[in-house]
Specification:
Helix content is 72%, strand content 0%. With 211 residues, the protein is mainly alpha-helical. The longest helix has 24 residues.
């Protein structure tokens, strides 16, 4: 009787070399992701340029080179589009990880990094100073993200909201003059010098005794 082992080995080797029939194809970016990204980028630029009231779904769609119905399909309304376009995670540092005397510098440095790397913040600030929807969005970010950070180092919890508001005033004031209104001296100010000027003030707001 002929030995069937060589044939079995050939069959086994061929089977091992063949890809599994159920193996999924390599992942590729979905067209919907690219469309969403184009819509959000166009929306940020449009809201920043025109403000909330004047910006329209049709204008955003034209800028993104798509049909307006696609914007409505993904975001439902202008309010939904605005909320998605200006969704911001400030990624604030844990100030308790720094020496107490360094928390002001850490916070100012972080915000300058964010402003210079994230066009969403600039768009939101432009809308926020001219429109109620933008202002409310800024207030939400302030309440949900900055207050807990300030609470971690504030010497008196009851003073924490006021202290955080004072910090926001300093940081947003610099951002407004440097990145939105673009006052020449504010734009020309070297980054490290801006930190050196603002850090002691923010430090005082966060940790100094009540005046």
């Amino acid at each position: 009787m002929p030995d069937s082992k060589p044939e079995a080995l050939v069959v086994s080797a061929a089977t091992a070399a063949s890809p599994a029939p159920d193996a999924p194809p390599p992942a590729t970016p979905r067209r919907s992701d690219a469309t969403r990204g184009a819509i959000l980028e166009a929306a940020r630029e449009r809201f920043a340029a025109d403000g909330y009231e004047r910006a329209t779904i049709r204008a955003v769609a034209r800028d993104a080179n798509i049909d307006p119905s696609m914007v409505m399909r993904y975001y439902g309304s202008k309010e939904g589009l605005f909320a998605a376009a200006v969704a911001v995670d400030l990624k604030l540092p844990d100030l308790t990880a720094f020496a107490r005397e360094d928390v002001g510098r850490a916070l100012v440095t972080h915000f300058l990094d964010m402003w210079e790397e994230n066009e969403v913040l600039t768009a939101l600030l432009r809308v926020g100073v001219t429109n109620q929807a933008g202002a409310e969005r800024m207030q939400t970010i302030f309440r949900d993200q900055l207050l807990p950070v300030a609470r971690a180092v504030c010497p008196d919890p009851e003073q924490m909201p006021a202290r955080a508001a004072l910090c926001a005033g300093q940081l947003l004031g610099l951002a407004l003059t440097r990145y939105v209104l673009r006052f020449p001296p504010a734009v020309a100010l070297p980054r490290q010098e801006a930190v050196a000027w603002l850090a002691p003030t923010v430090q005082r707001y966060l940790t100094a005794p009540h005046p």
